[in-house]
Design goal:
Layout: H1 4-21, H2 57-60, H3 64-76, H4 78-100, E1 104-115, E2 127-141, H5 146-212, H6 218-253, H7 283-286, H8 288-309, E3 314-325, E4 338-347, H9 353-421, H10 427-461
Antiparallel strand pairs: 1-2, 2-3, 3-4
Helix pairs in contact: 3-5, 4-5, 5-6, 5-8, 5-10, 8-9, 9-10
Length: about 475
């Protein structure tokens, strides 16, 4: 029976218990403070309600060979397979966290024989058999939501791994497409140089005849020979680039080096449908890296709550039921040796608060890191779209001007050849005209490749490339 004399110490002890359980204040706290702009700069058209990011990659890329390569990469790319296992690991973590707030039930059993010598204990010189078997249970009541928040944080991490894999898919699809266009561009550049070498060889033959006729010196012949040799060596450089680019493609697909089939003759005609960019806020729904950063931030906030809850008292219920005896004569009669027990425990940290405080502060620091990472991801996502929109706009103008330049130089080649045959211009002017035309044609192919890559990169920047995947993820949450 409690009296006034022993109630006051108990109240004081409980008060001290609760005071010690209070969590310290955090030295630094930070929330997200940035907001996306209303629109993208240098936009060529008005924002649309829908975005090209909603289009599946199979509908965006119409080239059947390119679609085949992307499909093979999504099946066999090792990095994607590694991320698939990360998703499974995160799902297993949900199971582990959920198991912590469910009752823990176990079984115990034991037995022994004791022989005490004379004068040592009561009933000395007699053999005592002992044994026990039963079930035990422990259940921590999650009154501060520590365990539930930990489970929810694991679930957000799981969703984050899925978004991480989706972002990897968007990057892989874009890289496969860009590598494919690079191969096509190299093939076209090789064809241009082959044609240039044939033209140079023909002109060289004309120069040889003119030398025999004493109209030019051997210097002209040597200059054209040198130009032929220079471009023949340039062919081998392009050939080496083709081999390296093919091997890069094969690594992305997840296979050993082999020929990558493509129809490079369609390169100059290759176009994409007009890419629609919606308002910047749609990046929050389409970009997997932005969604992952959001989920990571939510998980970090919950982990702070989990760490804070460790300062508070925890309540657990322990129970057990079974058979136990310490007397030989009752060992054969289990009915007389049954037991059960039920007990509640309250525990709180007193001496180890410094370690819990360190974990609490670290969880808060990780939350601040997650805020910065979210903001950085958002800025990068917006900048990616802005850069590609500007690039497409400028490349379109550059390409149109380069087409006109190539047309003018092609016409100048015809004029130069006529005048050269008539000895109206010298060989240097004819050579430089041919060289300028070659460089312009090679640059035109390069600009075309950049245009296609900019379209692909804008599609990726908007968050396109992962939709339409056959995903079958089942969470344990």
């Amino acid at each position: 029976m409690l009296t006034k004399k022993n109630v006051l110490p108990n109240i004081a002890l409980i008060f001290l218990f609760l005071v010690q359980a209070c969590a310290p204040s955090l030295p630094i706290e930070r929330e997200n403070t940035i907001a996306l702009p209303q629109d993208f700069p240098n936009r060529m058209d008005a924002p649309t309600k829908t975005s090209t990011a909603d289009v599946a990659w199979k509908e965006f890329f119409h080239d059947p060979q390119l679609a085949y390569l992307i499909d093979e990469a999504l099946k066999h790319n090792q990095e994607l397979n590694l991320l698939e296992q990360e998703i499974n690991i995160a799902n297993n973590e949900i199971m582990a966290r959920q198991g912590e707030y469910l009752p823990k039930i176990g079984m115990r059993a034991g037995g022994g024989v004791e022989k005490a010598e004379r004068f040592s204990t009561e009933d000395a010189n007699s053999v005592t058999k002992s044994g026990n078997i039963g079930l035990t249970a422990t259940w921590e009541l999650d009154i501060w939501k520590k365990l539930r928040n930990a489970s929810k944080a694991a679930y957000f991490n799981y969703l984050g791994t899925i978004e991480g894999r989706r972002f990897m898919v968007t990057s892989l699809v874009a890289e496969i497409a860009n590598t494919y266009f690079e191969l096509m561009a190299l093939d076209n550049q090789m064809e241009i140089i082959d044609s240039y070498i044939k033209v140079l060889t023909q002109i060289k033959g004309m120069v040889v005849y003119q030398q025999k006729a004493a109209r030019v010196t051997s210097l002209a012949v040597k200059r054209f020979e040198a130009e032929v040799y220079k471009n023949q060596s340039r062919k081998y450089k392009i050939l080496q680039q083709i081999i390296l680019t093919q091997n890069k493609m094969n690594v992305l697909i997840g296979r050993f080096p082999q020929e990558v089939f493509r129809d490079s003759k369609k390169f100059s005609e290759f176009t994409f449908s007009k890419i629609k960019a919606s308002v910047p806020t749609h990046l929050l729904d389409h970009r997997p890296d932005v969604k992952k950063a959001t989920l990571d931030l939510e998980a970090a906030k919950l982990n702070v709550k989990v760490a804070k809850a460790r300062f508070y008292p925890s309540l657990s219920i322990d129970g057990g039921v079974g058979y136990e005896q310490f007397n030989s004569k009752h060992f054969e009669d289990p009915a007389t040796t049954s037991f059960y027990g039920l007990m509640g425990n309250i525990t709180a940290p007193l001496l180890n608060r410094k370690a819990i405080k360190a974990d609490y502060f670290s969880a808060n620091n990780k939350q601040i890191q997650a805020v910065f990472n979210y903001e950085l991801t958002l800025i990068k996502a917006y900048t990616d779209v802005a850069n590609q929109l500007t690039k497409l706009k400028n490349l379109s103008k550059i390409y149109d001007l380069k087409v006109k330049q190539v047309a003018a130089l092609t016409e100048s080649i015809n004029i130069s050849n006529i005048l050269f045959r008539a000895a109206r211009v010298d060989y240097i002017e004819a050579l430089f005209t041919q060289r300028d035309a070659l460089e312009a044609q090679v640059e035109l192919v390069e600009i075309k490749k950049q245009q296609l890559s900019a379209s692909v990169n804008l599609y990726k920047a908007l968050g396109g490339g992962w939709k339409g995947l056959d995903e079958k993820y089942e969470s344990e949450y």
